[in-house]
Amino acid sequence: MENESKPLKLNVKRTFIIGFAFFGILMLWQVYNTYCPLFLTETLVKNNGGKETDYQYIVGVLMALDNLVALIMLPIFGALSDKINTKFGKRMPFIVIGTILSAIVFPLIVVMYAINSLAGIIAMMCLTLIFMQMYRNPAVALMPDITPKPLRSKANAIINVVGYIGAILGGAIAIIIPFKSYRHNTFGLLIPFLACCVAMIVTIVVLFIKVKENKIAAEMADEMRRGEQESELEEKVAEHTPLSKKNKISLIIMIIAVFLWFASFNAVETFWSSYGQNHLDISNYSLFTIVLTIASLASFIPAAFISEKIGRKWTIVIGLGCMIVGLMLIALIPQSKEFVKVNNLDYHKTPFALFPCFVLCGIGWAFINCCSYPMFVELASGSNVGKYTGLYYAASMLAQTLTPIVAGLLVYQAEKWDILFVYSTIVMAAALIVFIFVNNVKAKNVKIKKGLEALDQD
Description:
Elements: H1 2-5, E1 10-11, H2 12-48, H3 56-83, H4 92-105, H5 108-114, H6 118-145, H7 152-176, H8 179-182, H9 186-210, H10 213-219, H11 221-229, H12 245-279, H13 286-310, H14 312-332, E2 339-342, E3 345-348, H15 354-377, H16 385-414, H17 419-435, E4 455-456
Parallel strand pairs: 1-4
Antiparallel strand pairs: 2-3
Helix pairs in contact: 2-3, 2-6, 2-7, 2-9, 2-12, 3-6, 3-16, 4-6, 4-9, 5-6, 5-9, 6-16, 7-13, 7-15, 12-16, 12-17, 13-14, 13-15, 14-15, 14-17
């Protein structure tokens, strides 16, 4: 009875270490999304002639192909990690093996670019994605495996903070080594890719040493059972029992909403480097990505505490609203190519008006991501977290498979870049309209430690 009345507490130190896997994932993703579209565009222009906009539809298709691989592999590895159990745990074998293989293949993308092999670039991109998906799903599922449901937004916020530090580092490297200056310097272009690989290996070694999956799962068994009773769902989830009708409807709505907001965000994420270089004609386009990332980083923890007050659903609604306003403002701000003379040299002005827009988008994206995955796996029981993690990422990866094709086609047909943010604004608004119908009620009388006590370090 004493344990039943004791408030649930989050082990911040352990959650922070679990976030190390996400650190490597987001650092790699930042480098991947910055350089790969440029590698593809440069190789296509070099081999076929023409201008950059002529190939954005093709680049969109090629960027979508690797996401198609992820769409297939994510649910497979999620389900597999649910079913196996080794002395190292359910998730850890996938995390370690996937990390090592990703680190081996990722730098080979640069090698293929250096030898001007379009097929080689695509092949190495696909292999990187396969190995990344081998450990991405299990790495993400590790948190809800050992975190009670009411604490998952806070845990997810911490993991995202760790991950976004990796994204910031990836973006900073891209600023230091801009593609435009290093396009013919293979060694220079290898630096961001090798830095990602080293960071991934180091963080996973720490994770493997510090987090003993089976031991922690056994220690957390009682709190996990209590967390199930104190979840945000009106109708609770039981082991080996089908979802209720209300929960099935919520699941379908969330799958659609996740698809839409990732479709919106990934269109910008995929084409921003090309947009910045070819439309704004700036080399510091990564600076805006870093601003967005820092804004997100600063917003994850506040989003977690806000979700405790108003619930995850309305926290996500606020985030979607911020994203819509930010994207709409970017779409409405006229893009000019004014010049400023410095020592008789022409420099393009940095479009400073975009900074607050990216800050707003960063805040909104943090509010969405802090609560969306915990809300999704709220519908999972202890035995199928990997399966529901797979569904979540299948929805997001399907969006990232289709949206580069659609956005690239729109840019190609319009023959101008302005259409990109119009598309993203409309799709994000559609996500809000769909998501508002999710039927999920905040739990009553959940006993969670408050203030500094909530951040338990044991």
